[in-house]
Amino acid sequence: MLKKLLLLIFLGLSLTTSISYAQTPSQAEIAQWRTYAQKGNSDAQYNLGVLYDQGWGVKQNDATAAKWYEKAAKQGDTKAQFNLGNMYYEGRGVKQNKTTAAKWFEKAAKQGHVRSQSRLGFMYEWGEGVKRDLKKPNRYINKPAMVVLKVHAGLTD
């Protein structure tokens, strides 16, 4: 019961975070994030990456987004690792390099980032940026699929 309550709280916080991103931050907030980011705060670095990636409150700039994502990703931020992986996969703001994309997806996947696990699994299945390996997709794709199924079935503790 407690774990279900915590899951609901987590989902509520996730929704709040998503809603806050839907509102363009003030220039004062952006300046504050920039100050923290320059001091090495990975959350602020990730936030700046999102702002430049989406063009929220700043001029949209893929290269600048990639720069901030990389700073946060190097500190282990899984969301930044996933977003940076996508940028390398698509060649947005960086030279397209699916091998580098796979590297970032794998770093996040090893930390339990479900979307990275799924993306990496498909890369192994298709042989994109990694040597094709039909056993690895099962490990990477099935794990996130099982998490989703358990949550929907109410089987999580």
UniProtKB/TrEMBL annotation:
**Pfam families, alphabetized:** Sel1 (PF08238)
Keywords on record: Signal
Q: Does the keyword Signal apply?
A: yes
InterPro entries xrefs: Sel1-like (IPR006597), Sel1_AlgK (IPR050767), TPR-like_helical_dom_sf (IPR011990)
Q: Which domain of life is it from?
A: Bacteria
Signal peptide coordinates: 1-22
Q: Does the keyword Kinase apply?
A: no
Q: What is this protein called?
A: Sel1 repeat family protein
